[in-house]
Amino acid sequence: MSVRLVVDGRPVEVPDDGSSLLEVLRDRLGLRTAKDGCSPQGQCGCCTVWVEGAPRVACVTPARRVAGRSVTTLEGLEPAERRCWAEAFSATGASQCGFCTPGIVMRLAALRRRGDEAPDEASVGRALAAHLCRCTGWRTIFDAARLVDGHASGPTPGRDVAAAGRRAALEGGNPQTVGPAVPLGEGGFADDTAPADALVAVPDGDGGWAVGETLREARVAAGKVQGRRSPVQLGHPLEVPPGEWPLTLRTTWVEPAYLETDASWCRPGGEPATPLANGGAFGGKRASPAPEAARRLADELGRPVRVLLSREDTVRLGPKRPPVAAGIGLDGSGVMRVVRTPGVAEAIRSVAPGLVVEEVDAAGPATSSDIRGAGWVEAAVLLAVVSRLGGEGGRVEAGGPVRIDLPSGAAAEASIGPDGAVTVRVSCGLPLDEIVLRSYCTGAAHMAMSWVRSEGLAVDEDGEPTDLTIRSFGIMSARDTPPVLVEIVPSESPPVNGSDAAFAAVAAAAWMADGLPQDWPTRGRA
């Protein structure tokens, strides 16, 4: 038995073995613009393609269901249309790592084709509800959609792409490519570059690896079961230190939620591909098990081996942001308890030497101080906010933005208006490329608001994560993300990371805007 369909205008025939359309496109036909960010959850939108011109999530579409029908991937768009979207996303900073954007482009391109009038912000927001982008903070994607429809200025003439790449590397903590190829999914991701004849290895659930000729075979051998969102409520594992504190804070486990799950591949005797091909994953992949597993299995089996973690694997195995519980005085002294994590105490003391750091053991998933700003951002937020307390009952002094100054020399001021709009003013040395810097600061603003207000990961009594779907992490959607205005302060000083300062400043501003409740997330999970 076989399935016949037309892909990008070409008739194809593949075995009818129960594979999803995504598996057929990527593993049978080698079409890699459709990405696997959550398969088979159908929740991230990275694998969006067209079936008879209508957008569809490929990872939950059985290939046999589209037999005899026409499927279009990003590779199959008309070259002029591809180029238009690629240039718009590049010109507005609407793509950073580029993993989620091929699916978003397919969704927005379909929306644009459907009506006689250009899509407005409301319709773009509704379309993006099917997607998740962790890097850009959504607002630059709205800008790209307007640019395609001629409602915004075009690409910057004479843009220095090398300088843009330098700024992206500073902000992302890893070498990154910048340019029109990136929104098309051509950032060189490990799972896209694996040889076609590679064996596939996935975690087997017992600390080892299940291997198959295809991803489907490997997952069947591992007994993979699709993860679910649990009814378990968020918990705060640490108690605030005893004392009379004018300001206290408790946080919970938080999932980094990078879109490209850990992947690597290796030939026998070779060097494994990095899982950080075009992005830093917010520090979540620094200790990824994928490269070493690919090297070892390739040497043992004498064949190239491709290692791929599912979304459920990254939640179970990947490190989280360590929870904290803190009390701080008006003079900046206080105590911060943090789940025991190598390096986190030093990070906290680097910005808040007046805080006593207590590391505490707690049942829960692995944590890492490599996660973006782990520990020190919470400390910087406490210091910035407590400096604004005054008057009866410790009211926050009205007026003006909240400011964060970092030892690196970077600084950011942030405020949130009555309408929810965010304004961020960032100083981080020579901008190098304002498009990239603005994109990263916009993404940092989104991540900060989302973290403070709605993000968290539920764990059971044994400390095991129970929320295994990408939509269960509480990440703020495109429709819920307010406008973000980023002002870059001109400087000729050496360039330093600026988006981390923006992340801390917006987190402080969001907390203040919500009335400084002790526990984050302040509004419950989305």
Tell me briefly what this model is.
This protein is an alpha+beta fold. It folds into 4 domains: 2-76, Ubiquitin-like (UB roll) (Roll), CATH 3.10.20; 79-188, Orthogonal Bundle (DNA polymerase, domain 1); 193-225 and 262-309, no CATH class; 324-513, Aldehyde Oxidoreductase, domain 4. It is 29% helix and 16% strand.
Distance between the termini: 44 Å
Number of strands: 19
| CATH fold descriptor of the largest domain | Aldehyde Oxidoreductase, domain 4
Overall shape: it is globular
Number of separate domains:
4
Helix/strand/pairing category: alpha+beta
List segments where confidence is low: pLDDT < 50 over at least 5 consecutive residues: none
Q: Helical segment tally?
A: 14
* Name of the CATH architecture of the largest domain: 2-Layer Sandwich
- Largest sheet features: 5 strands, mixed
Side by side, the strands of the main sheet go: 2-1-5-3-4
Proportion in helices: 25-40%
**Share in β-strands:** 15-25%
Residue-averaged pLDDT, rounded? 94
The CATH class of the largest domain turns out to be Alpha Beta
Oligomer state of the chains in this structure: single chain
Rg calculated over all Cα atoms: 23 Å
